Amino acid sequence: MKLVDGLIEEQFAHTLEEHGVTRRQWQLLNVLARGESTVEQLDAAVAPFLVDAEDGSALDHLSELIDSAWVDATPSGYELTERGSAALGRLTSVVSEQRTLMTAELTEADYTTTVATLERMARNLGWSD
């Protein structure tokens, strides 16, 4: 599991970095696509993906997105700009292609069973969503 997780993380990080964003920025863009969020809400949304202190808070990853005019700071939080929404659309296509490559030669049943099994194992070990 560690090997596959590491390979997935590495491949997605590389793919996203080729397009100028980090994995954490990608996750923040997806959260903001659902609507305006406070930094606390963003921190909570990406917390399961933060591995260690090096990953920092959402605020650490927002500054570049704000500088790129993909995200705006508002009086009550942060929101995706029109430019950010367009960039997210392009990135979503790239990530979708990556996911297709990752699951090549797997049937839908194989993939569903694998995900369900991993979720069951995580719940057995105390994870809850």
Give a structural overview:
It is a single chain. The chain has 129 residues and is mainly alpha-helical. The protein has one domain (2-124): Arc Repressor Mutant, subunit A, CATH 1.10.10. It has six helices and two strands. It has helices at 2-17, 23-33, 39-46, 58-67, 82-102, 108-124, and strands at residues 71-74, 77-80. It has a two-stranded antiparallel sheet. A hairpin with a 2-residue loop joins strand 1 (71-74) and strand 2. Helix 1 packs across helix 5 and helix 2 (23-33) crosses helix 5. The longest helix is centred in the C-terminal third of the chain and has 21 residues, at 82-102. The two termini are 20 Å apart. 17% of the residues are buried. The model has no long low-confidence stretch (mean pLDDT 90).
Strand content: 5-15%
CATH class category: Mainly Alpha
* Number of beta-strand segments: 2
Instruction: Summarize model confidence as the mean pLDDT.
Output: 90
Unreliable runs: none
CATH architectural grouping: Orthogonal Bundle
The CATH homologous superfamily is named Winged helix-like DNA-binding domain superfamily/Winged helix DNA-binding domain
Largest sheet properties: 2 strands, antiparallel
The outline comes out as globular
Q: Numbering strands along the chain, what is their spatial order in the largest sheet?
A: 1-2
In total, the number of domains comes to: 1
Percentage of helical residues? 55-70%
What is the fold-level CATH name, i.e. the topology?
Arc Repressor Mutant, subunit A
List the total number of helices. Answer: 6
